[in-house]
Amino acid sequence: MSAKIPVIEMFGPTIQGEGAVIGVKTMFVRTYGCDFRCSWCDSAFTWDGSSKDKRVMMDAEEIMSGLTELGGDRFDCVTISGGNPALIGEGLSELIDLLHERGIKAAIETQGSRWQDWFLKVDALTISPKPPSSGMSTDWEVLDSIMERVRTSGKGAHSLKVVVFDDEDYKYAAQVHHRYPDIPFFLQPGNDNVTEEGDISARLLSKLEWLFDKVIADPDMNAARVLPQLHALIWHNKRGK
Ligand SMILES: C[S@@+](CC[C@H](N)C(=O)[O-])C[C@H]1O[C@@H](n2cnc3c(N)ncnc32)[C@H](O)[C@@H]1O
Ligand SMILES: Nc1nc2[nH]cc(C(=O)O)c2c(=O)[nH]1
Ligand code: SF4
Ligand SMILES: [Mg+2]
């Protein structure tokens, strides 16, 4: 029980700002490294080399101690994001088991490019395939297989979340929703300036209104849910929130 995980930051307790578990109080563990390079990534420091010296290799017990030091007894959920946590096998499997032993739920943010067996024991698995504006392409065979395995064997809840910047992304989102009609589906407006300082809420809200209007007018989106990045409305582009 000591596989190491590359960790770039831990923070919290904070409020989950996105998707199916929005509003839940949670700690965050952010892993280092991503197999994607999204043009608008709000966490590019996990892969662009700018923070590589801050990456720490930690095992599950060390992460648990770090989280307890930060959050005391003020949390019962830990969200593991990145980067792509699905690049990591044994270490995260052990961390999820340890969280469960302590009665803590595990939530995951990943893009659906890689499978890990530990997906099946995650309490809230968010799969976020990337639309055209990211510059990335979707391997539909891999995504199909992930969605099928979590749908048939997953112990926890799972959902899809697509970030939308423009009309082309919206079409892509509709394609994802249509392909997996039984999976809870979330749309999230993109933040098109992740380095702007100060209050960005007005910009984000106008993007949200644009997306609301599209969904309201579209019979193919009757079952979709549209949510902002709640934390970005409150804490803007601040890191560790
Ligand atoms: C930073 S990613 C890390 C987890 C994983 N790599 C992924 O992309 O799902 C976490 C979430 O933030 C979203 N995200 C990243 N940059 C964003 C932006 N500029 N605006 C809105 N959402 C963004 C991603 O689409 C993903 O749903
Ligand atoms: N508060 C808060 N909620 C989040 N939901 C997903 C996040 C992520 O970066 O994966 C995130 C984040 O960074 N902060
Ligand atoms: S997949 Fe996630 S972490 Fe990786 S570049 Fe895209 S948004 Fe960033
Ligand atoms: Mg974030």
Summarize the structure in words.
The chain is α/β, with parallel strands linked by helices and 241 residues long. The protein has one domain: TIM Barrel. 30% of the residues lie in helices and 21% in strands. The protein has helices spanning 60-71, 90-101, 140-153, 167-179, 201-216, 230-235; strands at residues 5-15, 25-31, 56-58, 77-81, 105-110, 124-127, 157-164, 185-189, 225-226. The protein has a 9-stranded mixed beta sheet with strand order 3-1-2-4-5-6-7-8-9. Strand 7, helix 4 (167-179) and strand 8 (185-189) form a beta-alpha-beta unit. Helix 1 (60-71) crosses helix 2 (90-101). The two termini are 30 Å apart. The model has no long low-confidence stretch (mean pLDDT 98). The structure holds S-adenosylmethionine, the ligand Nc1nc2[nH]cc(C(=O)O)c2c(=O)[nH]1, iron/sulfur cluster and magnesium ion (MG). S-adenosylmethionine is lined by residues 34, 40-43, 81-82, 84, 109-111, 128, 161, 163, 188, 190-191, 194, 229.
Short overview:
The protein has 241 residues and is of the alpha/beta class. The protein is built from 6 helices and 9 strands; from the N terminus they run βββαβαββαβαβαβα.
Class by alpha and beta content: alpha/beta
| Number of helical regions | 6
**For this structure, what is the CATH class?**
Alpha Beta
> Any idea what the shape is?
globular
Helix content: 25-40%
Instruction: List low-pLDDT spans.
Output: none
Second-tier CATH architecture: Alpha-Beta Barrel
How many separate domains? 1
**CATH domain fold name:** TIM Barrel
Largest sheet: 9 strands, mixed
Mean pLDDT: 98
Termini Cα gap? 30 Å
Order of helices and strands: EEEHEHEEHEHEHEH
> What proportion strand?
15-25%
Strands in their spatial order, largest beta sheet: 3-1-2-4-5-6-7-8-9
Keywords: 4Fe-4S, Iron, Iron-sulfur, Lyase, Magnesium, Metal-binding, Queuosine biosynthesis, S-adenosyl-L-methionine
Catalytic activity: 6-carboxy-5,6,7,8-tetrahydropterin + H(+) = 7-carboxy-7-carbaguanine + NH4(+)
Pathway: Purine metabolism; 7-cyano-7-deazaguanine biosynthesis
Function: Catalyzes the complex heterocyclic radical-mediated conversion of 6-carboxy-5,6,7,8-tetrahydropterin (CPH4) to 7-carboxy-7-deazaguanine (CDG), a step common to the biosynthetic pathways of all 7-deazapurine-containing compounds.
